[in-house]
Design a protein that fits this description.
Order of helices and strands: HHH
Shape: elongated
Helix content: over 70%
Number of strands: 0
Number of helices: 3
Number of domains: 1
């Protein structure tokens, strides 16, 4: 019976990590969208919010359940905005 409880506890913990990841990843994607829109409009933007979420995601990823995400630079946002404009 204790093995079952330990497996359940482990699964619950992994599920919580995945749920946190999903929320942080969504927050990161929204921050990316906002930065891209500001860039396309010629407005000033930063990657601070994006990379704050990235840092939290990568902290979770060290626990081995969720994937890591790359740190985003201003140049990456500018390049992505240019690609979108060309489409």
């Amino acid at each position: 019976m204790s093995v079952h409880k330990e497996i359940t506890k482990h699964s619950t913990k992994q599920n919580q990590l995945v749920q946190k990841f999903m929320l942080l990843d969504q927050e990161r994607e929204l921050a990316i969208d906002e930065a891209v829109k500001r860039c396309q409009a010629g407005e000033a933007f930063t990657t601070d919010r994006i990379n704050e979420a990235t840092q939290k995601i990568n902290t979770l990823a060290r626990q081995g359940v969720v994937p890591q995400r790359k740190v985003v630079t201003k140049e990456m946002v500018e390049e992505y905005a240019r690609k979108l404009k060309q489409q």
